[in-house]
Amino acid sequence: MSTQIPLRGLRATTLGGYLSALGLLRILATQHDTTTGLRWADDLPVLTGASSIEELTAWLLGSYQPSPIVSPWNAGAGFAGNGKSVEAERALAQIEGSQDPRVAVLREAIAAGRKVVAEGRARGWSGESLWVKQHKQSVISLCRNTFPDEALSWIDVAAVLSGPDVHFNPVAGTGGNFGRQELSATYLQHLALVLGPEADHSRAAAWVRAALTGDEDVPYKRGAVGQFDPGRAGGVLASIWGEPDKQGFVNPWRTILTCEGLLLFASAAVRRNAADPGAAWPFSVHATPIGHPTASARETAKGEIWAPLWKRPANLAELEQLFGEGRAQWAGAQAKDGLLFALAISALGVDRNLAAFRRFVIVERLGQNPIAIRATDVPVALRNEHTLLAEPYVWLTRLRRKDKIPAGVVALLRQCDQALFAAITGSGTTAMSRFVIAFGRLHEAVARSGRLREDIAPYQPRQSRIWNPPTDAASQLELQLASALASLKTRTERAIPALRPLLTRVTRTRDRLVWADSPATGTELLGSTLAQALAQAHRLHLQSLDAAPGDTEPPAAELPVGQTVALPVLESFVDGDCDDEVIADYLRGLMALGWTTSQPASALQGRTRNPVLSVLLPFFATDPFRLVSTWGPDPVAFTATLRPRPDWIARLIAAGSGGVLDDALLRLQLAGCQPMVGRPPDRDRALAAHHTNGTRLAAALLMRVRTRDRTTALSAATATRPDKASPVTT
To answer: What is the pLDDT of residue 286?
Structure first.
């Protein structure tokens, strides 16, 4: 078995550590042993093939040949020769004057850079004009035509030329420029410290061991830490970019290995295949300002790097292929932002041999200086949330592209994005609940905006989908009630919830949804008005029922499709033992999304203790009741079809349950069901039940209840029992 060497100093806790591990593998595989491999144990890189830390140290000090990384297109790279970048100019001179054969290719690249500068000045770009923005594309083109082949990878890392435009890789700053730091100049300065003619080899060896092992027992150099490892900024007055006496503590070998690792991020095949040059680098996408604790919508973000992690040792050829393709695909296209990248991972639109991705977001802080923030770890796994969130994401994307979105809508859109990202990445058990609520609120906010309503249609799902929330989720009672209401439909094949046009600013034209000026009930769906809105929806539904030609019985009041509610749950709603605000939030979101939840396996069983509810429930059943009368000396089997009067719901809303209850008791008696309510010793309990809130009762009667539960309620209110000789509909 090959030797396994953990590189504890190069952990992927920072982007610099991740790149350094890649850089070490790259130079070992190209210059020392092609069989060298690398794997990740969580964020710990493990090198295979090398024999020991001592061997690695000796090889780096004695045999390592630095890659040619020079940037003549940047004024701070040292090629200007005007004395403004003294350290950079000195580093260039040291490399040029070195006779060490290990830096021969680097000397050749520097000579090519000098030639590019001379050519630019010959074209009339004298003085500082050579480095102004309008000449950047021309200078980089000259470099590509002049540099040796070994130096072209750095150009591919730093920039992509697209016609007259130049696009910069966020992982390499602005063409290798990070605020006050020029990366190629820093690279050359640190090479001179460890490999130059004046290098202190004992310190260089100590720095190597510290970089590889993580033993922080050596004094480091003061210098610009840069974006890759901002945590090394140092003390109270330290800065990752500031004056020399306020700079951080730098291990030169970390900088060198980081730059070597960057060369794996050359655009390669990604550039040829990407439709967007701005996201042409491996696993690089536009920034999404969500998904990490310090995210801010107002913060300038340069981009994101999704660093792949793998558990099986991979050699350089495999990694070059991985980074050369470097894509995450969703819906047949390359992911261009963090949300799409997360969706691609959840749908396995990435290489399945990868274990996870570590997300680094490059943001501008400390002035206008970029730093890489570790944001999220996302395991590569197929997630069921992907099938639920794919369609809503498309609608959210359409909304996001609109101009002049009101501030309130922007805030709700951000909440949706945050919850969606958390759900997709598995970083929060309540994320899906938060998304349902935020989406419902956002959809209603768009409905209130006259400007947005003209530009975007209501969200209309292609088909109903089932969301499986955690069984231990909070607000389980409220979610069950909301899901039962949201699932109500007028026919099986219809994906549009029956209550959506009644309770929200959406109306139905055939099977197409359009915006409405107000809910059909005239009542906003809020926690404080939930019962009123549902009762009015029930009233409108009851008024819309028409008997079919030839029918002798009125049509059934119950909506034919939807989840059922257990009697104790229904009674809890009638008694107000639930949070109406939570129910309204869930209901609004579930109706907008077209989702229902799976029926809880532990649905409550039992009888209702509310005699008014027991009396009225049977009238809203679809099927006839097959009963046996227990009133009188001999049992008598019979069938009873019960239907409510069309005005019952309106009367419950206006005057409470008293008059409707009396009417229902009379109808029960006429149907052969002798009422038990109102007879001694139940008279006092029945009178007390008359104080049941009529509006909540009207709202509760809208929900579907199993036929056997309605039969149970009927048997509790009358002298009847189910006819067990007849089949029972559940």
So the answer is: 86
Sequence-separated (6 or more) residues with CB below 8 Å from residue 132: none
Neighbouring CB atoms inside 10 A of 551's CB total: 9
Write the burial class of residue 608 (CB in 10 Å: 0-12 exposed, 13-18 middle, 19+ buried): buried
Assess contact for 41 and 24: CB atoms under 8 A: no
- Residue 365 tokens read as 């802080």
Tell me which residue of 331, 292, 15, 46 sits closest to 173, measured CA to CA: 15
C-alpha 243/C-alpha 224 separation (Å) is 9
CA angle 84, 115, 99 (to 5 degrees): 80
| Strand bridging mode 329-330 / 333-334 | antiparallel
Instruction: Calculate ∠ Cα 676-681-687, nearest 5°.
Output: 75
Q: What is the pTM of this model?
A: 0.85
Query: Mind giving me the DSSP string for 185-252?
Result: HHHHHHHHHHHSTT--HHHHHHHHHHHHH----S--EEE---SS-GGGG-STT-BSSS-GGGBEEE-H
pLDDT of residue 470: 80
Other beta carbons within 10 Å of 300: 13
Pick the closest to residue 69 from 231, 217, 265 (CA basis). Answer: 265
Two tokens at 149? Answer: 């082949």
- Cα separation, 396 vs 405, in Å, equals 12
Local structure of residue 555 (DSSP, 8 states): P
pLDDT score, position 605: 61
Contacts of 150 (CB under 8 A, 6+ apart): 67, 68, 105, 109
DSSP string, 27-68: HHHHHT-TT-EEEEETTEEEEES---HHHHHHHHHHT-----
Two tokens at 490? 């007028």
Paired sense of beta strands 465-467 and 595-597, if any: parallel
* Amino acid making up residue 693: N
Within 449-503, where are the H helices? Answer: 450-455, 476-486, 500-503
pLDDT of residue 279: 54
- Classified as helix, coil or strand, 489 is strand
| 400-424 confidence digits (pLDDT tens) | 999 889 999 999 999 999 999 999 9
Bridge partner residues of 364 (DSSP): 370
Distance CA 596, CA 401 (A): 29
pLDDT of residue 373: 86
How many CB atoms are closer than 10 A to CB 275?
9
Task: Give bridge partners of residue 564 from the DSSP assignment.
Answer: 704
DSSP character for 85?
A: S
294: number of Cβ within 10 Å = 10
Contacts of 662 (CB under 8 A, 6+ apart): none
Pairwise CA distance, residues 630 & 649, whole Å: 30
Q: What is the maximal distance between C-alpha atoms in the chain?
A: 119
Q: Which long-range contacts (CB under 8 A, 24 or more apart) does 344-348 make?
A: 345/378, 345/380, 345/381, 345/424, 345/425, 346/381, 346/382, 346/383, 346/385, 346/386, 346/424, 346/425, 347/382, 347/386, 347/390, 348/380, 348/381, 348/382
Residue 254: partners with Cβ closer than 8 Å, 6 or more residues away: 16, 20, 211, 229
Q: What pLDDT, on the 0 to 100 scale, is given for residue 687?
A: 46
With H, G, I as helix, E, B as strand and everything else as coil, classify residue 285: strand
Q: Where are the alpha helices (DSSP H) in 104-149?
A: 104-122, 133-146
Residues in the chain, pLDDT under 70 = 1-2, 223-225, 232-248, 267-280, 293-298, 352, 366-368, 472-473, 492-495, 547-552, 599-607, 677-690, 726-730
Sequence-separated (6 or more) residues with CB below 8 Å from residue 84: 75, 76
- Look at residue 552 in the predicted model and tell me its pLDDT: 62
Given this model, what pLDDT does residue 537 score? 96
